[in-house]
Amino acid sequence: MMETMDKFGLAHCDLPTMMWNVAVMLRMVAVKIEGSAKSIPIFFYLLAAVSIVLYFFNYYASMIVFVLVDCRETGDVLAAIMALSLSITSLIGINKLMYMYIHQDKVQSLVADYISYDRELHWPGTAALMADLMRNVKMRLILFWAVTMGNAFIFNLQPLAMPSEVSRLNLYDKHVVYGLKFILGITNYPIALVNIVICVFFICSVTSCIGGLLIVTTGYSEVRLLALSQEMRDLWSDAHQHYSENFEGDSEGKKAAKELNNYVNYRLQVIVKSHAINIDLIKKLEGIFRNAIAVEFILVTAGLSIDLLGGLEDTFIILPFSLMQVSMDCYLGQKLMDASKVFEDSIYDCKWENFDVKNRKTVLLMLKMSQRTLSLSAGGVATLSFECLMAIYKSVFSAYTALESTMK
After folding, report:
1. Where are the bilayer-spanning segments (predicted)?
2. Which of 52, 161, 249, 390 has its CA 20 to 30 A from that of 37?
């Protein structure tokens, strides 16, 4: 048992183990990403179905009744704002889950392609670099999971911090099972508590698991780009080392130049193939999630705008959930773009001026390929980056100021 749990730690940062980590978490929400893995137990399908039904009852059916009936009678605008904010924000993870269900075959194919890519021989000189970089990817995965699930624990522990049972009931009337009394004719705190605990953990589990898949896949593509960059920079010196270990005499002269360029040609072909596979994997990944991310950005903008409208003193507990998701997506996109730029620079820095004409043509082809920066997008409209993240924050603030002025 302890050996299995240890695989979720930083001691195991290889791609197969990290994919297994994500696969185990996704099985709990009835998503299978490894085609060769065992079938998901029926219990998890039932648990996911019950959680989804409870979610839509709590966050949409009850919310509509609460906003349209109770809030209109009481005039409690803040309660209506918080209800809308929670419903919109919580839909981000469910949106991605629906895409996972719809494109499950494509996701399984993508995961299999990444595992196959990892099985290809890595250049020994970059093994240490890849190990360090994959450790960073695992740390991102653990951090994202900890923040997301930690947010769920904090949200569910709110009632314990309330001074009285009355205030706890009021909190759950406004935050949780909106309009429960109108639908079931009761205002039962234990029922509300059970409903919200199940829903919150389900929503955050979905978000952390699917986010984990994006972190591992984009992180591995980033790591391979950086490893290829190091390989390009060391190419000419490796060629000289190869010559000195396998041939007699110095590395000057026509014979030496021919052997050096034969070695360079072989290595360049391997690098070109690896880079082409990486490009294909990122395109497949983006093709699966681009529309889901676009919907996520729309929901985040709307949810954060409403959060600010309700006042941070009342809605601050909701913000980390939204901000962590959109920030992580943009961070992953930016890291992928940065790695692409590093790879492009490494091609300039590979001492190509020493190569023969054939190898120079190969380098020129690689340079043209590398200038098409690898990136992720939201619906093909916005490229995920820090610039995109700042644009979202600006959009949120603009929407907030417009709504605030309208309400005044």
Report:
1. 42-69, 75-94, 141-161, 191-216, 374-393
2. 52
